[in-house]
Specification:
This protein is an alpha/beta fold. Helices cover 47% and strands 14% of the residues. Helix 2 packs across helix 12 (253-266) and helix 4 (87-93) packs across helix 5.
Length: 300
C-alpha cells in the first residue's frame, strides 16, 4: 500500500510540475497600437519586432489608429496594450500644460495616466523628438517675408493653412494658435498630419502653410522653411512607450521594460528623419525599415 501511495503521490507531483511549467513559461500576446501617420507606425513596428525577438506574440491590429483621439481611448480601454507617444502632445490631449522640458512633460503625463484605464505607465522617453512644425515653401517665405509664426498673423487672409484633421479639438492647434498668434483656422484645410497628402498640398500650392512634423524628410528635400514657433506654443515631443499596467502585471516587468527602454535610448531625431525618408522616398515597407534599424543597432 505504501508503494502505491508513493506512486500516486509521484504522479500527482508530475502533473503539478507540468502544469506549473506550462503556465509559468507562457507570455501574453501584446496588443500593439499607434497613431495613423508613418513615423508612429514605424516606431510601433520596431517595438513589435523587438518584442517578438524576445519571445512575445504581437497583435498588430491596432497599428495605424488615425489620430490620438482614437489611439488614446484605445489604450485606456485595453483595445491596445502599448503604443508610442509624443509626450508633450500626449499631455496636451489630457488638458495638461506641456512645456519645452521633456522631463516635466513625461512626469506630468504619468500623473494623468495613473488614473486612466486602470493605470498606464510612461516608460523612459527617448532623445528622439518630433515637434509640430508649420512650414512654407521658400517662395512663400520670400513673398510674404515669413520667418516666424508671428509673421503670418498680418497676412493670414492671404495664406491658406493646411492643418491636422484633429486641429479643431487638439489643444496645441486651433485654440492655441488663435490665442498666441491671433490665427483663425476655421477655414483651414484638414489633412492627415505629417502625411504625404500634406506635403503634396504644400508643394502644389493647395495650401500655403502646412502643418508637418519636424522630422518629415520632405522639408529638407524641397528646401522648405520651418516657421519659428516664437511664442513657444508647440511642446517638447520626445517619444516614449506607453504601456498598460495590467499588461506589466502579466510579464517580467524588468525585462519587458528594458526591451523598450533600450530602444528609446538608441533612437535619435536623425534616425527618425532617416526612417521617414525610407518610407516616403524609398517606398520601403515599415516591417523592412524596422528590421534594418533593429539589426543595425544590435537588437536582433
Amino acid at each position: 500500500m505504501r508503494r502505491l501511495r508513493m506512486l500516486a503521490l509521484g504522479a500527482s507531483m508530475l502533473v503539478l510540475l507540468s502544469a506549473c511549467s506550462t503556465g509559468g513559461g507562457s507570455k501574453p500576446t501584446i496588443k500593439l497600437g499607434s497613431d495613423g501617420f508613418y513615423e508612429s507606425k514605424i516606431v510601433a513596428e520596431i517595438y513589435g519586432q523587438a518584442l517578438e525577438h524576445n519571445g512575445y506574440t504581437v497583435d498588430r491590429t491596432g497599428i495605424g489608429l488615425k489620430s490620438r483621439d482614437v489611439s488614446a481611448p484605445a489604450l485606456e480601454s485595453g483595445q491596445i496594450d502599448l503604443k508610442p507617444e509624443y509626450i508633450g502632445s500626449g499631455l496636451a490631449h489630457y488638458k495638461g500644460t506641456p512645456t519645452g522640458d521633456p522631463a516635466a512633460n513625461a512626469a506630468a503625463l504619468q500623473t494623468v495616466l495613473n488614473g486612466k484605464g486602470g493605470g498606464i505607465t510612461v516608460l523612459t522617453y527617448s532623445p528622439a523628438a518630433d515637434q509640430n512644425a508649420f512650414v512654407v515653401t521658400k517662395a512663400t517665405a520670400d513673398q510674404f517675408h515669413l520667418a516666424t509664426l508671428s509673421d503670418t498673423t498680418a497676412v493670414q487672409a492671404q495664406l491658406k493653412f493646411g492643418v491636422a484633421t484633429d486641429c479643431a479639438t487638439n489643444p496645441v492647434c486651433a485654440a492655441a494658435l488663435k490665442s498666441a498668434y491671433g490665427l483663425d483656422l476655421a477655414n483651414a484645410t484638414p489633412l492627415d498630419a505629417c502625411s504625404a497628402a500634406m506635403a503634396t498640398a504644400l508643394g502644389a500650392g493647395t495650401v500655403a502653410v502646412g502643418e508637418l512634423c519636424s522630422t518629415q524628410p520632405d522639408i529638407a528635400q524641397n528646401n522648405w522653411v520651418v516657421l519659428t514657433d516664437d511664442k513657444h506654443v508647440q511642446p517638447a515631443d520626445n517619444l516614449a512607450p506607453l504601456v498598460r499596467n495590467d499588461l506589466l502585471a502579466k510579464v517580467d516587468k524588468v525585462s519587458f521594460e528594458k526591451i523598450l527602454n533600450d530602444i528609446s535610448a538608441k533612437m535619435t531625431t536623425a534616425d527618425l528623419t532617416k526612417l521617414n525618408a525610407e518610407s516616403v522616398f524609398d517606398k520601403k515597407d515599415i516591417s523592412e525599415i524596422a528590421k534594418e534599424w533593429l539589426t543595425t543597432n544590435g537588437f536582433v
